[in-house]
Amino acid sequence: MEQSKKRVLSGIQPSGNLTIGNYLGALRQWVVEQDSYECYFCIVDMHAITVQQDPGSLRAKTREVAALYLASGLDPERVTIFVQSHVPAHAELGWILICQSPLGWLYRMTQFKDKAAKQQQDSVGAGLLNYPALMAADILLYQAHAVPVGDDQRQHLEFTRDLAQRFNALYGDTFIIPEAMIPKAGARIMGLDNPTAKMSKSEASEYHAVYMLDAPNMVKKKVMRAVTDSFGEIRFSSEPERAGVNNLLTIYQALTNQSNADIEEHFAGKGYGDLKKAVVEQINNRLQPLQEKYNRYINEPGYLDQILANGAERASVVAEKTLRLAKERMGFVLPNGK
Predict the structure, then answer these.
(1) Could you tell me the pLDDT band of residue 1, with boundaries at 50, 70 and 90?
(2) Which residue in 223, 218, 220, 226 sits closest to 195, CA to CA?
(3) What's the longest Cα–Cα distance across the chain?
(4) Is 110 exposed, middle or buried (0-12, 13-18, 19+ CB in 10 A)?
(5) Which of 144, 151, 197, 330 lies in the 20 to 30 Å Cα band around 189?
(6) Catalytic positions, please?
(7) What is the spatial distance between Cα 226 and Cα 248, in angstroms, rounded to a whole number?
(8) So what's the pLDDT on residue 336?
(9) What percent of the chain has pLDDT over 90?
């Protein structure tokens, strides 16, 4: 890999089923970035355990996400693909950064407040509160210049930037301050059943999301039941009451790369049924070849495990160097006095 390239780090949790939103907002963007940046893409299994996980499911989903990375077009010869827990430096720097994180900063995290509100006070795990510090460790270990994030993760990236600046001020320049990389289109795909909320891979509703591994008939079933409105006009809009149609148009646009004007002209005089059928066609055209590749990868567990082992080895070289520097700056006695 060319050291002259700027570094990018991102990851996805192996919990739930990856959605068309994960593909359009993240994976597809990563595939484009792999030619321009030195990329590290991990499966963040340590983040997944901030809530209870079934052990068998966690193992299966970790491999599933890795296979979907490859099926989406990530090339392990050009990017580093690895499992977060395979690189121990994530946990070690995570603890160091937890100790540097003011409690007030952590309590202000919107995602923590939202998730904690859905649980009983006594059942909220400390990992959920400290999640941003571990995410900061993920990013800072690789001295990432940029982090592809959706709008909902921008606060966590700001936390990472603040924490890196705090550490650098206390102990000397150690970490690069990362910038956000926000995709121009398809960055925020909303739920089909609730277009005012982001499409989530952990939502229980059957008609909330199109999953990357959904069969064509299931994609059709879900999209045809998507929430629209009573206006009957197909056009882009930021009005809350038009959120359903706008979401379908956003998905269509992300898959076709057409302009707002061209799309509105295409659907002029047509009904919502026509729009939904067009969205179904575009999604299935994209997912079917991807699923064929996924099936090949998932049925070769030895190959998949080797990719992850190679990725962890490459990632560890960079991560251990950063961890050692951070520990040295803080005053830890390093092994063998070195």
Answers:
(1) very low
(2) 226
(3) 75
(4) exposed
(5) 144
(6) 115, 198, 201
(7) 8
(8) 77
(9) 77
Q: Which of 18, 75, 79 is nearest to 213 (CA)?
A: 18
* Beta carbons of 22 and 57 less than 8 angstroms apart: no
Phi and psi dihedrals of 2, rounded to 5?
Answer: -80, 120
Radius of gyration of the chain (CA): 21
The CA distance from 254 to 27, in Å, is 13
Token representation of residue 140: 């800072």
Q: Do domains 7-182+300-337 and 216-295 have the same CATH topology?
A: no
Q: Where are the domains of the chain?
A: 7-182+300-337, 216-295
Angle at 184 between CA 183 and CA 186, to 5 degrees: 75
Q: Which tokens in the block code for residue 211?
A: 């999953």
**Alpha-carbon distances of 189 from 23, 33, 134, 164, 252, rounded to whole Å:** 10, 20, 26, 30, 11
CATH architecture assigned to 216-295 = Orthogonal Bundle (1.10)
Residue 141: closest CA among 334, 314, 2, 336: 314
- Residue 165 to residue 241: CA distance in whole angstroms: 41
CATH of domain 7-182+300-337: 3.40.50.620
Give 163-168 contacts, CB < 8 A, sequence gap 24+: 163/97, 163/100, 163/101, 163/105, 163/133, 163/136, 164/136, 164/140, 166/100, 167/97, 167/100, 167/326
Could you count the other beta carbons within 10 Å of the beta carbon of residue 254?
Answer: 23
CA distance 272 to 100: 52
User: Does position 120 have pLDDT exceeding 70, yes or no?
Assistant: no
User: By C-alpha distance, which of 287, 309, 304, 139 is closest to 215?
Assistant: 287
What is d(CA 209, CA 24) in angstroms, rounded to the nearest whole number?
A: 13
